[in-house]
Amino acid sequence: MHYYYAMRALELARDRSAEAERARLRASLAAGQPERSSSVRRRLALGLAAVSRGSAGVVRRLDDCIADELGRSLAPTD
User: Fold this and answer.
1) What domain range includes position 67?
2) Phi and psi of 31, rounded to 5°?
3) In tens digits, what is the pLDDT along the chain, a chain of 78 residues?
4) Buried b (16+ CB within 10 A) or exposed e, 32-41
5) Are 42 and 29 part of one and the same domain?
6) 46 and 78 part of one domain
7) How far apart, in whole angstroms, are the C-alpha atoms of residue 78 and residue 64?
């Protein structure tokens, strides 16, 4: 029985949260303001892309170094 009440409370909270988000969106559209969450998402996406590009560059440099070392270690020695 406790499980039912917990699930019902979560459902009500989710419904209220969704309604509040819709009301906030209606108010921001009525005021002619851009949606705030899109600018936050854009900044986060740009930050993640920068980290991704940086890590890809590091991996490429490490790969080049390891490839050189592997080539030298496999070369026949005199």
Assistant:
1) 37-78
2) -85, -10
3) 777 888 888 888 988 999 999 998 888 787 776 666 777 888 899 999 999 999 998 888 888 777 666 666 666 665
4) eeeeeeeeee
5) no
6) yes
7) 25
